[in-house]
Structure formats: C-alpha cells, structure tokens
Amino acid sequence: MGNEATGFRARIQKFGGVLSGMVMPNIGAFITWGLITAMFLKTGWFPNEKIAVLIDPMLKYLLPTLIGYTGGKNFYGDRGGVIGAAATMGVIVGSDIPMFMGAMIMGPLAAICMKRVDRLFEGRIKPGFEMIVNNFSCGILGIFLVLAAFFAIGPFVQVLNHVMSSGVNVIIDHGLTPFASVFIEPAKVLFLNNAINHGILGPLGITQAAEAGKSILFILEPNPGPGVGVLLAYTFFGTGTAKKTAPGVAIIHAFGGIHEPYFPYILMKPQMILASICGAVSGNFIFQMFGCGLVATASPGSYFSVLAVAPKSDYLPIIAGMLVSTAVSFAVGAFILRLCHDSDEEALQKAVAKKDSMKAEGTGGGLIGAQEVIDFTGKVIKKVYVACDAGMGSSAMGASILKDKAKQAGLDIEVKNVAIPNLPEDVDVVVTHESLTERAMRERPEAIHISVDNFLSSPKYDEIVSKLKQASSPLPVLKKENIKVIHKLNSKEDAIHMIAQMLLKDGYVTEGYEEGMLLREKETPTNLGNGMAIPHGVLEAKKEIKSSGIAALIVPDGVLWNDETVRLIIGIAGADQEHLSILSNVALTLNQEEAVQKIVDDQDVEELYHILTK
C-alpha cells in the first residue's frame, strides 16, 4: 500500500511539474498584465480607458500563446515551442474565454506530434533539402493542429472550463472557499511544486478576474501567513537546529516569497500541518468576508508580491487576512510544540532529506554522479547557476548561499538560480540536487555539473568556492621544480612519459595528453637537430590541456631520439593559441647547439629556467 501511495504521489508531482513548468517561466508577463489591470482598470489606482484596452488582448492572446510556446519548448526545444504557439492560436480564436487550459494541452501535444513527424523524416532527407523539409513539415502539421484545436480541443476545453468554474462557483456561493486550504496546504508540502497555484487555481482565477476584475482563488495558495506562523512557532517554542534556523527561514519566506524551505519544518513534525491549515482557513474567512481578491496570481508568494497585485479597495482586508493567518498558525503551532516538546538535533536534517527524496520521486531522478572531484583547472568560469524544477524555492536559497560565499572570497562570477529548462547556453557550471542532475546534463551537456544532496547546507559550496579561487590564480607556465636532471634514459618514450607525468601532477594536462604526445612523435619527430627535442601533443590533444605548461629534462648522457642523440628535452602543453608562441620562444632562444651544450654540461637548471621564463 505504501508503494502505491508513493507511486501515486510521484505521478501527481510529475503532472504538477509539467503544468507549473509551462506557467512559471512566464510569471513576469502575468505580473505585467496584473499590474496594468490593477492600475488602469476603471476600478484601479489610476483609471485610464486608453491604456486599459491592453488588458483584454494580453489576457486572451499574449498569455495563452506564451504558455503554449513554453509548453512546446519544454517538450521539444524551440521547434516544439513554435508549433506549440501556432497550435494554441486554434483554441484561442475558437473560444470566448481565456484559453489557459487549452494552451496547456496544445503546447505539449503539438510538440510531441512535431517530434514524431521529425522522426519519420530522420535519415531520409537528401543533403540540401533539410531546411525546406523542416519548414514545410512544421507548417503543414501546424494546419492540422490549428484546425483540430479550433474545432475539437477548444470546444472541449470550454465545456471543461464551464464545469470546473461552475464547481468553483458552487463552493464560493456556499461559503466553502476557506476550506479549500484543507487540501491546498498538505498538497503544497507533499507535492513540492506550484502545480496547484499555477496549474489549477491560476487558470480558474483568470477566468473569474476577466469577469469581475479580481479573484479570491489567486490568494489561496500564495498567502505566506500560514508558513510564517509555523516558523515563528519554532522560533519561540522549538528546540535544537529547528529553533536556530527558523527565524532566518521565516524572513526569507515572508519577504522573499519562497515557500519550499519551510516544508521540512512540517515534515519533521507532521502534526504541524494542522497549524498551517488552521492559519490558511482563518485568513481565507477574512478574504471571503470582505470579498477580497487579487487581479493576478502572486508569485513568489510574499507579503509584498500579494499586495502588488491587490486592488486598492482590498488592501486593508488582505493585510488583515494575512496577519490573521500568521497569528492563528503561530498559536496552533506553539500549542503543538508545547505538547510535543521532544528534542531532536537531527530531526531537521532528516526532514530535509525526506523532502529531497520526495522531490526525486516527482522528477523521476536517481542518484547519479556529476563531477565527483571538482576541478576547474584551466577553465574560465564566469557563470554558475543553481538549478531546480521551477528556478525558485530551494535553488534560490542555494544560489543565495553560494553567491554570498563567492562574494566573501572576492570572486568575480555570476551566480543565479534558474529553472532547468531555462539554463542558458553559455552557463559554465550547473549546481543541482543529485536527483535532478541527469535532467540538467541532458539540457546543457557541455557545462560542468555538480550534484548536491541538500541545497541549503551542502559542503559542496565551500569546495566550489575553493576550487574557483584556485582556478582564478593561473598556474605559472613553468615551475622550477619541473626542470629535472636525469643522467640516463632508456628511450624517447621514457622521456615523454616523465614529461607528461610532471605536467599531469601539477594540473596542466589530463592523462590523455601523453597519448597525444606519443602520437605526434609518430607523425612528426620533434627533435630539432641541435641536441634538443620539444615533444608536444597533436592538435586533437588540445582538449586534454587545462593550462599552458612546460616541463624540461636535462640528460647529460643523452637519449637516442630517432637518429640523433638528444640531451635537452622541453615538453610543451599550450592551451588555446599559446602553443605556437611557446614553441617559437623556445626555438628562438635555444636554436644554437652551443647554447644547449652549455646548459647540459653545466647542468644549469637556473639558467634554463631564466631562459624559458624571460
């Protein structure tokens, strides 16, 4: 039975993640529409009929098209996004209500169809015809999808929307809206995503707001009061780590609007969900009593963001409702904590681990490795992104922690939080929870990926900063200790091996560079005819170079190098365009056999170091 429940929760999480993944990247556009509505509608702060004409077109065309594009892109990249947006127009034009649910259907559906069609043509297109086939296959498929959306999906969604809206209206008419939080609050903690707010309440709320100018549905989930009340109860009546950390999380939750960090405080003591429910229901009664609502969804759910999309007539009752939610949640939470006054220093860490494992179920992730040993040697790191499903919640907390540590270390790097589908192409390092790393690697395979087991307290952050500091201090091209006097060598292969090992030991190259040096020697011998050889890798081996470096061997007894006896060996690893300049410098400086002879006879490490570094 337990496995069935876990599987059901995971399926719900995945479905919710798909819904919220279509809306979350477009929250900025929703807020733009909401603010325009709040300010310029005839009941707004600054009524303006001319500007208010923007409200309906944005609601009917812009926002659903963005959702359709994002839904398609999440399933099949830019190509899926384009066909998803085109197909969404079919449900938009064929209906007289905002088609958010229609967009959530058509975006992914169109992308999946496009992907199937592309597979039919894969490997069958003659060279030179790729563009015309790709464009026309998308265009022709688009016709069928738009017509299907116009004649079938649109009417179906209208009926579905009417049924759901009628159900919501029944709940509202019977004064039962406050009790919706009996389901919303546990679902927030268990599903760990924004599916309820952005996938269900948001679309229904927008339909109501289009008619009435506001909707109470927009405030049911974002209200920060219940979570803040729970955290304040832990602050005053908790024990151990929970008591110490709750104040900071409360501030982040209240004013930053990030809900996820307070979930472990409920998971560690499940009876605290009663405090959250009681607080939410109490606030909802205030909202209902005064007919409150928001003009758009509030995201993230902070005190400030809720007020930002509230009509001016509702400010005071909304503030009162949020404060009542906080007070009731605090009172009930305090009572529960006083009754259950057991102390467990490890309880919070166990709860965080439980939350992360639940999240892994919902994302389909497993424990996989990225960079087990962090190594940025030879890399230019400018952008480090902490990524999760929605780009909020725990990843925002993780990015804040990492950014602060990087700032204290004096590192000039960009640290941001982002949703995995929105990782930019030029990101250098991606930090994700270990359950999400596989997804992130599929999204940006060229980046360096680092897994953490806990966004909030991972020791990996200190390791990342330490390695970034090392990488920002480049290795010298030549270290004096990498000039060695070896009286006898058996072969040139032994010499190359010693050179490669010195470069490898100090982090100039990877293990594969030695093979590149040996391959170059087979293709083109590197002895110069003056008693000196300059072994280096083939062009393909440049990917094995982390940082430009030199290592040298003085061999008084000489070593046979093809048909010549070589007594000075200078191994080179040149990163980027430095390879030729290093070769040129060595050749010009030591082009005379007399110069080589003198260094070898004197076994003069200091002189050779001076020559190679001047």
UniProtKB/TrEMBL annotation:
Subcellular location: Cell inner membrane
GO cellular component, one term: plasma membrane
Function: The phosphoenolpyruvate-dependent sugar phosphotransferase system (sugar PTS), a major carbohydrate active transport system, catalyzes the phosphorylation of incoming sugar substrates concomitantly with their translocation across the cell membrane. The enzyme II CmtAB PTS system is involved in D-mannitol transport.
Catalytic activity: D-mannitol(out) + N(pros)-phospho-L-histidyl-[protein] = D-mannitol 1-phosphate(in) + L-histidyl-[protein]
PROSITE patterns: PTS_EIIA_TYPE_2, PTS_EIIA_TYPE_2_HIS, PTS_EIIB_TYPE_2, PTS_EIIC_TYPE_2
Main location as per UniProt: membrane
InterPro entries in alphabetical order: PTrfase/Anion_transptr, PTS_EIIA_type-2_dom, PTS_EIIB-like_sf, PTS_EIIB_2, PTS_EIIB_2/3, PTS_EIIB_mannitol, PTS_EIIC, PTS_EIIC_2
PTS EIIC type-2 domain mapped to chain residues: 15-346
UniProt xrefs under NCBIfam families: mtlA, PRK15083.1
Protein name from the UniProt record: Mannitol-specific phosphotransferase enzyme IIA component
